[in-house]
Amino acid sequence: MQKIEQLCRRFLWNGNNECSKKALITWDKICLPKSAGGLNIVDIYTWNKAAILKHLWNLCKKKDRLWVQWYLEEAGVTTDEFLKGEKYAIKTVYNKMRDKHPKVQWRKLICNNQGCPKWLFILYLTLHDRLYTKMRLKKWNTGYDTTCALCDSEEEDIQHLLFKCPNTSQVWQKILDWQGIQRQTMGWKEEVEWAGKNASGNSA
Ligand SMILES: [Zn+2]
Q1: Which of 24-28, 55-59, 106-110, 144-148 comes out lowest in average pLDDT?
Q2: Exposed, middle or buried, 10 (CB in 10 Å: 0-12/13-18/19+)?
Q3: If you measure from the C-alpha of residue 162 to the centroid of ligand 1, how many angstroms do you get, rounded to a whole number?
Q4: Nearest to 60 by CA among 41, 47, 73
Q5: Ligand 1 centre from 149 Cα, in Å?
Q6: Is residue 107 within 8 Å of residue 203, measured between CB atoms?
Q7: Which of 101, 50, 92 shows the shortest CA–CA distance to 72?
Q8: Which of 21, 110, 130, 159 could be bridged to 125 by S-S, CB 3.0 to 4.6 A?
Q9: What is the pTM of this model?
């Protein structure tokens, strides 16, 4: 399982099986539901427990078996709850076994968004403040030139690159006008709050 998880992690961050790039977001977080700020990637350790429980479920109809009850307790599932259904769905049990996590305010921007996966991934990294801007790259290379390549005047951080740079600000303003939204372009934080409140679709 460790090997499988390692392959998944490397594929996400590198697109191959080589170990080179640093993970920008921890794997635990990546496995959270999208509404809680994750990407809903399967946590294979929890999934494996749920799959093992499926075997036990068949035996568990004989709930007088003490060892079965003990295992269920260890997995955090009550016997009554476990035996209630006529069918056992690994996914249902897996979801029950995962800890509950608070929903993030910007979940609508990621959940049910029909955008291209690459755009969504960039948005996801930006929402977690992990986008590779020049200011971020400077953390690993102090001599790095952080001047914005678009305007050649200010430092390139998320705020500047996406909304404050005169070039991108113009683009956003045109998009707002095109959509008939009567307001000026705001900063990154304010735009995320605005989009979170106004995005359509389920909040998940
Ligand atoms: Zn700029």
Answers
A1: 55-59
A2: middle
A3: 9
A4: 73
A5: 6
A6: yes
A7: 50
A8: 130
A9: 0.73
